[in-house]
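Everyone, describe these C-alpha cells:
***
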Amino acid sequence: MGNSIFSQIIGHEKVCEYFEQIIENQQISHAFLFVGPANVGKTALAEALIKEMMGTNQLESHPDFIAIKREIDEKTDKQKAHISVKQIRDLRDRLAMTAMQGGRKAVFIEEADKMNLPAANALLKTLEEPKGETIIILRAAQIEGVPATIASRCQILRFHQVSAEKIDLALRERGVSHPEAKTFAALAAGRPGLALRLIKDSEYKAEHEVAISTLINLLGQSTAERFKTLSEILPKEEINKAQMLDKQLDSWENVIYDFWRQALGLAKKIDWPINSETMAQKSASDWQKVLRTIQEARRAAAHNANPQLVLEHILLAI
C-alpha cells in the first residue's frame, strides 16, 4: 500500500481502502465496531486509524486518547469478567471535557463483547449523542457478544483470517528469512498479529508450540486417555490454570482452524505429527462446530468457569 497510513497492516486490503476513501472525503463516522478473531489485525488497524485522525505517532501518552479494557481484580490478580459501568461513566465524563490539545478525541474499547449490561446501556447514550469531534472504535471477537443496540449504532467492519501466503510475504519484507517466514505464517493460522508475536517473543513462541504439541497428542488419544493427560498438564494453582487456559485456547483454535481450512480445500495440508484416520475423516462442518465450541469456551472462561471442564468440553466436541 506504499505510503498509505495502513502500509504496515498485513492483509485487510478492502477495509484499508474503505478507510482511506472516507478519510479523503472527510466522511469519517463517530463509531465503528471491528469484529474478528484475536490477533487478526483489528487493533493494529484501529491504532493506525486513530493516529491518523489525531495527527500523532504516540497514542499511549496522548491526553485525548482513551483505551478501555477489563481491569485487574486486586484480590485475585486476574482480569475481571466484565468492563464495568463505572469505567463507561468515567469515559463519558472525560468525553464531556474539552480536548486537552484542542482537537479530536479517540476511544478504543478493546473488548466490547465483555461489557456488562449496565456498561452497555451507559455507552449507548454516548453513541447516540457524541460530543465534539470524537471517534469511538469498539473491538469484539464476535458480534453476537455485543448488544444489538450498540452494534446498530456503529459501522461494522469484519476482519477475516489472512492467507498464509500474504503473511509469509509480509514477514519476508520485514527481514524474516524465507524458511522462518513460512513456518511462522503456518503457525499463525491466518492471524498476522500472532505471527509477529511469535517472532518477537521467544518465550511465547515456546509456549505456543507446547500448546500445539499438547493438542496434537490429545487428538491421537481415546477419550479416557485425553482426560487423564489433561489433568496431568494443567497446573495445580488456580491462577496458573486460568493463564494456561487462555494460551491453550489460542493455540488450539489455530490448529483447529487449519484443519477446517484444509477440509474446505482453502489451505495446503500442514504436516502435523498426527496419524489419526478419524481426524482426516472429519468434514469442514465438523471442524466448524469445534471452532464454535472453542468460542463458547472463551465466553465460559470469561465468567471464571473451571479451566479443566472448559478444555474437556472442547475435547468432547472433537
Q: What stands out?
A: The CA atoms of residues 12 and 159 lie 7 Å apart. The mean pLDDT is 85. Residues 201-317 form one domain.
